[in-house]
Batch of 2 targets.
Target 1
Amino acid sequence: MKNKFNFLVTGCGGDIGQSIGKILNEYSVVKSLYGIDINNKNVGQFIYKHFSLGLNCEHEDYLLSIESFIKKNNIDFIIPLSEPELRFFSEKNINKVGTAQIISASSKAQKTGFDKLKTVIFLKENKFPYPKTSSLNEEVYKFKYPLILKSREGSGSSKVHLIEDKESFNFFKKLYPDFIKQEYIDNTEGEYTCCVFRSSKKELRSIIFKRILYGGYTSYGKVVENKNISNLIEEISKKLDLRGSINIQLRMKKNKPYVFEINPRFSSTVLFRHMLGFNDLIWSIEDAIGIDISPYVNDNVGKEFFKGFAEYIK
């Protein structure tokens, strides 16, 4: 078996891509690290020594261009990071491009998490706590204001709106008829972002951050221990038959965790997790290579992290 491998990270210019690149630049099994993004107005080019511009996944020649790149550079593994690309591969059930194996969360996790209404249906069917959710035209539940309107697809604060009254609801309903409405659970008892990793051998590990958001990103987090949360997220991963790494977001209500998002991909806290020894990216690669995943010492409770910025001049 090879000792070193060539990796391609697509969508490498975003915040997650930057974090993944920083980890892989220090990882001993990486022979050469390549990064592709659809534009070069980001710092990916400073992190990835082999940086290239690529096509949007909606382009008719997208798959051919990726296959050509993989062949030319002898890529062993591809890590797609943008949600449109992950959806593209998931919907077509593609787990290998040319000779390169795709490293991502398993199929059921992706198909459930990428559709926010399917996420709620999954939670409901498995009797997990969830905020009341429906399409905009359904009257299954009685909703009180404020409530949340958000896209069924994608993630990020730009696709989530806090609606305070009927007038605002009617305005956004016309603007975004395909959105869904969701019960608003306030932040009184805290918001949590949790990572769950599960290997092909069903080895399961999780970490919980109580977090503060700034500009749509986790700007501060603290590692906490909460059995209600850890039991819930680990049971969710089993029901999803998870292989790989996912991010679960939730808020507490009367000391009960309510999941409002399952993001079936590496998340923006991946570098913080790595710095704390929760190496879900490395474990995913080890699992893909077919070797035992490296050990994890869970001694992080109480540790805090802070998100900063870096500047680059070209």
Note: The chain is about 30% helix and 30% strand.
Target 2
Amino acid sequence: MKALPQLVRVYSREDALQKAETGHADKRLIETALRFYATEDGDIGVTYSGFCIISLPHKPLKSPRDRWERRLLQHGCAMTIEPGFLELGGRTVELGVPYGSTARLIMIYLQTEALRHNSREVMLGRSMYDWLNRMGMSVGGNSYRQVKEQAMRLSACSLRFTWDGISGGRRAAAFKKDSIIEAGMIFVDNGRSAEQGSLWEDTIMLSQTFFEKLKEHPVPINVGAVRGISNRSLAIDIYVWLAYRLHTLAAPTRVLWPQLMEQFGPGYRHLRQFRAKFLESLSFALVVYPEAEVEWDEQGLVLKPSAPAIPQRRFQQVMLPAGLDAAAS
């Protein structure tokens, strides 16, 4: 996998794709690497450590009334997301649980901005519009509908994390049931275009509970990496998991396929199907995290101590509010 970044660094787009074709490399991986290195400026993002272990669903649940419940015995933690409703146009609309890559991108933006300004009030409008465009999502047409739907689902749902013990070598605090977004995030359909940056209210307010846990347990991530895999929700989940775990390891650590399936593949019935999908998504995550030292075999993965996705000192200088410690420290 490390040959891909080298190939993209040395050659032009056309030459890299041609050499990839000659060497039987996946063109999609080359394109992902090109997107990553085209914007590799080390821009810093952040996510709550809990989302590095348990994530949102990848697809919509069967009913908008269904809740999303995950419990990982290996980590001693669980997450429950309950769907909610909003009053829109004089009627009550059931929205369902947020899902997919779009919801993940919105959450990364909200968390990053909240921590960057040390405030649970987050600016939207033009700022969020520009950020989503940087992620490769042109907010118009179908993309507009996707962003609108996922933003509203995030606004209405409630979230609970529970921790029974130590995860990844670090003790994590419980997270009581609360909303993610306390106020705002209602779309403004006022006849103005997406390009005018007026799709949302000016600000939203994260709930106090969620904001406090984010400040206590932030995990730094590379925004350029997320952009490279922005349309692949499983690859995003694997990337943030590796960013959370690898640089804290003292020695190589094996994770078995059944453990990985428990964490990343609740929708799969057969291990072989999950393994094929996981390895495909892992390949994309490794392209945008070239420092990651990961091997795999018939038993599972071997995670090795690796350089962090974002150097800790730079994260503290740029992002971390005074007096706080990152979860990945």
Note: The first helix runs from residue 3 to 10.
